[in-house]
Write a structure and sequence with these properties.
This protein is an alpha/beta fold and 250 residues long. The chain has one domain: Rossmann fold (3-Layer(aba) Sandwich), CATH 3.40.50.720. It contains 8 helices and 7 strands, in the order βαβαβαβαβαβαβαα. The chain has a 7-stranded parallel β-sheet, sandwiched between helices.
Amino acid sequence: MKTPWKTALLTGASSGLGRGLAAWLAKRDVKVYAAARRLDQLEALKAEAGDHIVPLKLDVSDADATFAAVQKLDADCGGLDLVIANAGVGEDTRPKKLNWESISRMMDVNVSGATATLCGALPAMIERKRGHLVGISSLAGFVPLPQSSVYCATKSYLAMFLNSLRLDVEKYGLKVTSIHPGFVKSEMTAKNKPEAMPFILETDDAVERMGKSLLRADKVYAFPWQLSSLISTAQAMPRPLQTAILKRLR
């Protein structure tokens, strides 16, 4: 299937959804600048997915360096068509055993890093009057969840940033997509109890759904529908009932 993109930058490409989505794009002849901290994993991805993968060592927790790196990459490659801020971390936030290092890292990666990734490409895209900006948020960005206050807040921020940004850049011909996956089998969810992750998806299934959403240029895409519908219903419920339902999810 032909895509509208020739070049793409994808952060968090060393594992999980990022790795799968990088391979999905490369299979469709998109030149993918696959970015992550673990260069060895990116080289392994290139060996599997082919020369359309260009490994790029990048730590998005350093927002200033990320912004500069994205700007330079955009200039060097002749213009990025697609930028996907996928890199993210999720850890428990336990008030009685507060871990500031964990909290700070989630803020640095999920908020500052994602914003720097997208903003780094934004000025040149506006000048060219084309481009597609994508952020991988989460269904957790829609509702409060137990022991997940910081993760939920960071994903809620990313969704609001993207939805507000869209209002400003659509007039320049840019597309903006906010993607909200539910539970997906990955390194991040491996530590969770299976009963706490309803409707969990295989990585390949989730990647295929996300890829099709990008091709449709959805403004917002939340999946799977079963969990997304449950969360939408919970949002409309009285707070005590909503709390009772959401306490079962992590």
